[in-house]
Amino acid sequence: MNPRLLLQVAALLTPVLLASGGAHAADKLKVVASFSILADMVHQVGGDRVEIATLVGPNADAHVYQPTPADARTVAGAKVLIVNGLGFEGWMARLQKSSGFKGRAIVATKGIKSLQMEDEHGGKGHGHAETDPHAWQSLANAKIYVGNVRDGLIAADPAGRSAYEANAAKYLSRIDQLDAEAKAKIAALPPDRRRVITSHEAFGYFAATYKLEFIAPEGVSTESEASAKDVAKIIRQIKAQKIPAVFMENIADRKLLDQIVRETGAKIGGTLYSDALSDQAGPAPTYLDMFRHNIQTLTAALSS
User: Could you give the angle at the alpha carbon of 274 between the alpha carbons of 67 and 140, nearest 5°?
Assistant: First the structure.
């Protein structure tokens, strides 16, 4: 082709290409998710129509998180803010107010029947009964999360309805498949191999769904501190009931569980992911990876 003609064509096409590329980037729905598990769910449903910022990232503890001025700016610039609710993000109301957020807020746990737990540990800010916010630890609840995320994104971006619905349908199918796998693996465990020790009470929904018993020295928040009396009680229980394994959590200090292991002879069964995903190099970079890892870690330790 004539070089001069090539230059003329390029001159005509360049503004069009730049405009279309810029519009695509600008058209992405700006979403802020409170923590890493929610952020992955938003990514699965939103696909390339959303731009996601995560306040509490991988391996970080949302219970004790302290928002920064940068977080306030991030929230202020978002069109959608997605939170867990059920008291999980105790700092969120202050952050939302200070940021001047004017977008659409979505509570991912809307419609979930929450569990109430007795808090025997008397941790800071905790009364005698407390709502367990860790509802994502049941795959049945995860389907409700996905529905709330889908509907919230559609309300904020009606033009993306078909994409959000299609993405959500595929994701829900994968959740159903993993749920069947989880139930089959745990059903194979003998009744006397279904008690485990974890750092804090993050697995109540998991226990209720999959018929395991989780015992934790801390309450439903990592802000709780176990007393010497609590720890002594758990040590006696491990010895009396021959509880086979103690499990670490990716967000927790391991010193307390190390003490329990030393005094009981129980083994460390592995690391469970409770309130946060791993980074991309770890075993739980997505919500479904996290759940599958937890199932495999639990069943491997309890069956041996």
Answer: 110
Contact 289/44 with Cβ under 8 angstroms? no
The partner residues of 82 in beta bridges, in order of sequence, read: 33, 106
Domains of the chain, first to last:
15-177 (3.40.50.1980), 184-302 (3.40.50.1980)
Backbone angles phi and psi of 60, in degrees to 5: -110, 155
Between CA 26 and CA 170 the distance in angstroms is: 26
Please give the torsion angle defined by the CA atoms of residues 249, 255, 258 and 260, in that order, rounded to the nearest 10 degrees.
Answer: -100
Q: How far from each other are the two terminal CA atoms of the chain, in whole angstroms?
A: 72
State how far the alpha carbon of 251 is from the alpha carbons of 29, 58, 89, 276, 288, in Å: 30, 9, 15, 7, 18
The CA distances from residue 204 to 13, 131, 210, in Å, are 58, 11, 10
pTM of the prediction? 0.82
In degrees to the nearest 10, what's the CA dihedral of 32, 177, 204, 131? 40
The answer to whether the beta carbons of residues 148 and 45 sit under 8 Å apart is: no
What are the two backbone dihedrals, phi and then psi, of residue 254, each rounded to the nearest 5 degrees? -90, 0
Which tokens sit at 276? 């946060």
Q: What is the pLDDT of residues 66-95, one digit of tens each?
A: 999 999 999 999 999 999 999 999 999 999
Q: How confident is the model at residue 41 (pLDDT cuts 50, 70, 90)?
A: very high
Dist. CA 80–CA 136, nearest whole Å: 20
